[in-house]
Amino acid sequence: MPRKIFDDPRAALEGLLFDGMTIMSGGFGLSGNPESLIPEIRSAGVKGLTVISNNAGADGFGLWALLESRQVRKMISSYVGENKLFEQQYLSGELELELNPQGTLAERIRAGGAGIPAFYTATGVGTVVAEGKPVEEFDGKAYVRETWLRADLAIIKAWRADPSGNLMFRKTARNFNPNMATAAKVTVVEVEEIVEPGTFDPDTIHTPGIYVDRIVLSTINEKRIEKLTTRERESA
């Protein structure tokens, strides 16, 4: 079995990056972002990227760094709010955007991993989402045809991995990460902890190691809160 564990994030991406490639990047908001791998993509200087991700990070964090360096040509996303740089680049025509309903984005990625080139959904029928796409009727209801999403590279973040690449995610940080791990030619995973072989009960594994090509320990684990909302504690 090839050795999957790499010494650092830069080594884990070596030989995988090229101009014009498509990258899937896990995360929902700032939860489950591959925050150690993204800076290495920026440092590599590759350009013309198509990035598939729920969003493009927040100001100063996550995929925002690749927008700021003008390395991203197109985003395939479902949420573009609260990122001023994303907004500016899109409105100026500098950044191409393919906007998806969130469930549709998740299913397109899952379909890519499952080898299903197209499927039908009622979500988006009659809206701009359906423009230019085939619409068919099933049992008296209209459905729009969506196509799979696949990538040259998936960068994802997990909580724990064993040397074979079996992964566990922690709570909401799971989000898009497991589906993306199945839908790319190469999957690179940064993890908070690498455990000994045989540590995992098979029933606790969220992503089997067959989908994972490279593993590296995270160098950044900030777990930022995108929008902190508080209220005064009620008196007893």
Automatic annotation (TrEMBL):
The keyword Transferase applies. Keywords: Plasmid, Transferase. It comes from the Bacteria. It holds the Pfam family CoA_trans. One of its GO terms (molecular function) is CoA-transferase activity. This is Succinyl-CoA--3-ketoacid-CoA transferase. It comes from Sphingobium cloacae.
